[in-house]
Specification:
106 residues, mainly beta, 6-stranded antiparallel beta sheet, 1 helix
């Protein structure tokens, strides 16, 4: 359940940026990697798109099968705003909450 919630929230965050493209056409996925060999205990994915947006994320359940089980997630999202400025948001979530750091790259 936590994994589904985390992936859903992460998907919403990854679509929040808008690239500085004159015609605002739909971006195409150029690369997508997904590693699920260890599911449901861990996962990894990343993608790059034609509008410069990219994302990487990995998650793992710590202490699976115990009352202390918790989903730990780390990731980074990059996007361009309407003025062509590149931003990066790094995030981590876990037993102690969710933290983000957003910085302007260029």
């Amino acid at each position: 359940m936590l994994l589904i919630l985390t992936i859903g929230i992460s998907m919403m965050l990854s679509t929040s940026g808008s690239p500085a493209i004159e015609n605002h056409s739909t971006a195409q996925v150029l690369r997508y990697d997904l590693e699920t060999a260890n599911m449901p205990n861990s996962y990894k994915f990343s993608y790059d798109s034609s509008d410069g947006t990219s994302r990487t994320e990995e998650g793992a359940i710590l202490n699976p099968g115990t009352p202390d089980a918790a989903l730990n997630v780390l990731g980074t999202v990059r996007w361009y705003d309407d003025k062509g400025q590149l931003y990066e948001m790094s995030y981590k979530g876990g037993k102690r909450g969710y933290q983000t750091i957003i910085k302007k790259i260029s």
